[in-house]
Amino acid sequence: MSVNPESTVQATVRALAILDVFTVEEPHLGLSEIGRRTSLPKATALRLLKTLAASGYVARNDDAEWRLGPATASLGARYQVSFDIRANVEPALRKLSDATGQDASFFVQDGNRRVRLVKVMCPDAQHSPARVGESMPLDQGAAGRVMLAALGQRGELYDQIRARGYHVTVGEAKRTSASIAVPVFGSRWRVVGALCIGAPAGADAEAKLTRFAGRLKRAAESLSAALSYDDDVATRRLTVARSTWHP
User: How far apart are CA 89 and CA 229, in angstroms?
Assistant: First the structure.
């Protein structure tokens, strides 16, 4: 069905065109290049970028270049998960839980918080009272930290997370809990959430969870490929960019 141009809001169309210029290969773009690719005057492009930035859909770095902001991840996560949770996320969590003997969860971003969207419990694990729908700060716990790192959060901690591709916390979000997490990506390299394995906090929790890092990263790569709708291309990109997956 064709769309009548008179029924569209041109400012919205132009704003969406700006969001569409960012790619996996070129996640950071200057104002002039954005204007050129969208055929917009620089002044118009800047007004739209500032409007998008106010709602978190784009962000500007210290080099005056622009990138997609965290709001796009939240929006993309809700779209991706609404279609793919039953077909892809739950089976991935089940395999992780069976292989590690621990509970496994999938988190998505919701503004400055993270929400546990799915949880699979292992019969042999010591379960935590964590529940589906639980909301926690985005900057506390492994799942939130890896999503922030994948979104380009600055700082030494996030550089380290990006370098190794996973993060472990013990007693950070909850005093009695420990977790290891990795980011999950969807189409066009957008962050859609995080896979997480949980365990009780204890002296050996970090070492125990770190042993699951390789398996967890491979599970996230497979899930990201499935959510991208282009398994071959996504798998190649994920393999090449395992340690540099921030925007």
Answer: 14
